[in-house]
Specification:
Keywords: Hydrolase. It comes from Streptomyces radicis. Strand 1 and strand 2 form a beta hairpin. This protein is of the alpha/beta class. It has one domain: Rossmann fold.
Length: 302
């Protein structure tokens, strides 16, 4: 569970609902105050997370001329939606990201996914290409996200949560694992967010984290500029695995000093600076390559 440094949006950030062809999603939206944005960043959170995991990035990005939109995914925190496992498969969540991208309008759009959000964002890129169209993104940044399934210890934890959640319920699990609500604004927020997550979403995406295959080579064929960013340590995907993934992708690589699995929340100033540096160095957009037709069906199933 990512822990944001604060959870109340700054005055420059607007909380609202983004209407898309796949329903409404709760967002935090920061727009440059004195100029038209040069680009938009769509920020997709990870497992048990929410838009607030990016809250400390929003103003720095907007001050640099980037409209920054952090979203609660389907079944996360304040994005209410219909239940059912099919609604929370990575393919469905990737389609949600494509719908969010379409709703944000024209102009360069940088996609940023943290952890599970990185797998979902990767799926959005691959699904767009598999459908025969260019991805609607100028770049993809993967934060604390790896090539496939999570490490064994984390798989055990995700399976255990999936097994006990229907039996005990989210409230009892919180009290058994957290021993109460810690004082302060952030502690109250973490408790409120945990209870608001759709249980079926937690169980379904937890399973996806345990079984997601390595799709790195397929993503590399797309030709999209990619940025792989992580902390110095990561208990969900080992940093050496993330390093090798970046090499296979031919990606720009950033390691945030002192950070672990969530540099967006743990070291937001350094993370915002790394994002802006990557985006500023991008060449003019070029059409992505189409994948091998034999791979197309597999990517669409993600």
């Amino acid at each position: 569970m990512s822990r944001p440094p604060f959870c109340e949006p700054p005055a420059e950030v607007r909380a609202h609902r983004l209407a898309t062809r796949r329903g409404e999603f709760a967002v935090l939206d920061a727009v440059p105050a004195d100029r038209a944005p040069v680009a938009t960043a769509l920020l997709v959170p990870g497992y048990t997370g929410s838009k607030e995991d990016f809250i400390a990035l929003l103003v720095p990005l907007a001050e640099a001329g980037i409209r920054a939109v952090a979203v609660d995914g389907r079944g996360q925190y304040e994005s209410v939606c219909a239940e059912g496992p099919a609604a929370f498969g990575l393919g469905a969540l990737a389609e949600d990201v494509l719908a969010q991208a379409a709703a944000l309008g024209e102009g360069p759009l940088h996609l940023v996914g943290h952890s599970l959000g990185g797998l979902i964002s990767r799926g959005a890129v691959l699904r767009a290409v598999a459908a025969g169209s260019a991805p609607p993104f100028a770049s993809l940044t993967l934060i604390g996200s790896g090539p496939g399934r999570i490490v064994r210890r984390q798989r055990w934890r995700a399976r255990a949560l999936g097994a006990v959640l229907p039996l005990l319920g989210a409230r009892r699990i919180w009290w058994l694992t957290r021993r109460g609500v810690e004082p302060g604004e952030v502690g109250a927020f973490l408790h409120r967010r945990w209870l608001a997550n759709a249980p079926t979403q937690l169980r379904t995406t937890g399973r996806a984290l345990c079984y997601e295959p390595d799709r790195v080579d397929l993503l590399a064929r797309v030709g999209l500029p990619i940025h792989v960013l992580s902390g110095e340590r990561d208990g969900v995907w080992p940093v050496p695995d993330i390093d090798r993934m970046a090499e296979r992708l031919g990606a720009h690589r950033t390691v945030i000093a002192g950070a672990e699995h969530s540099p967006n929340a743990e070291a937001p100033a350094a993370t915002a600076a790394a994002l802006l540096t990557f985006w500023a160095a991008l060449p003019s957009p070029r059409p992505p390559a189409s994948p091998d037709p034999t791979e197309r069906d597999r990517s669409a199933a993600g």
